[in-house]
Amino acid sequence: MKYLLSIWTLILLALSCANGQMTTPASPNTGSPGTPLLPSHAATAAAAPTAGVQVTGKPVVRVNGAVLTDRDLVREMFALFPYAKLHNGFPKAQEPEIRRGALQMIIFEELVYQEAARRKMTVAPERVSREERKFEQQFGSQAEFTQYLETEMSGSKAKLRQQIKRSLLIEAMLKAEVEAKSAVTVSEARLYYNKNPKAFEHGEVFAIQTISILPPSNANQETLKEARKRAEDALRQAKETKSYEEFGLLAEKLSDDDFHVNMGDHKAVDRDKLPPEVVKAALAMHPGQVSELLQLGNAYTFFRLNAHTSPGKTTFEEVEKNLAGNLQKEKYEKLRVALGKRLRQNAKIETL
Q: What is 204-310's CATH number, 3.30.530.20, 3.30.70.580, 3.10.50.40, 3.40.50.720?
C-alpha cells in the first residue's frame, strides 16, 4: 500500500505561504491516502488561501537547535483540517486541538529529517531535478513560478532544491522504517481472521436505496395530500428504472431524506435497524425490485432492494483485501508511533 503522495505535493504544502497569508499557486490532484506524518494532503494546498489565517515567520518550536516557524505550523494545520477554506478558517472550538496536533507533526517531521541526515542518507541529484521540474509544472505560467521563487525562496532555486531534498529524505526514512515494515501477508491476514471469528459474523442485512417524501411535521391535510401525490408520482418513475444508477439518480433528484446525496443508498443495514414495514416488504422481494409505497408516520417512502443477506459468517476471500489493508494501516501507525518515541528519547525540544 502506498501512503505517500508525490514529492511536489509535499513541497507545495510546505512552502505555500506568501505575503503573511497562506497562498496557493496550484491545486494538484490528490493521490493515494496520505499519512498524517507529512503535509501530504493535496486538498490542503487548495484550502490554503483562507481569510484570517496570518503567518509572520515567527519561531514556534526548536528541535535540536533547528527552528520551525508558524509557517510550518499553519501549513500542517491545513493538512489536518483541509476544509478550513470552506469554514473561512479553523473552527474556534477545534483550533487548539488542531494546533496541538500540527505542532506534534512538524516536530516529528523534523526529527525524521535529522535522523536521515545523521544516517547520511542521500538523494540522487537527478531525482531532485525531476521533482523540481514536476513542482514547477504545477504553476499556471513561468511568471507565476518566478513570482513564487521571489516571494518564498528569495529568488533562489537552490533553496527550493534544498526543500525538495528535505522532503525526499523524510519520505525515504518513512519508507525504510515504517512503510516497508508494515506490509501484511496473506498468511498474517488469515491468521487474524481465524483468531477473531466473531468479528466476521453478521446478522440478517438488507442493502437498500430509498426515496422519501417528507412533509413538514405540522402539515395540514392539504399538504399531506400533495406529499402523497408527489410520492406516487416518484414511485411511478422509480418502477421504470432498471438499475442501481437509474434509481440513485432519481433519488438525488426527488428524495427528501438525507440519503439522497448518496443516490439514496443506505448500504447494508441490519434487520433490527429497519422499520418492520420495510422488513416485511423486503422479505417478499427479489434484488432489483422496487417496493410499493409505504407510509411511516407522515412520511411516504419506498425502496429498491439491492441485496438480502442471511445471517452467517463472511468468508476470508470476501474480506481478504480490506482486512489486509486495515491491518497494514494499524501496523503502520504502531511503527510510526514507535519511531516517534525513539527519536524523541534524546532530542531537545523547546516550544517557543
A: 3.10.50.40
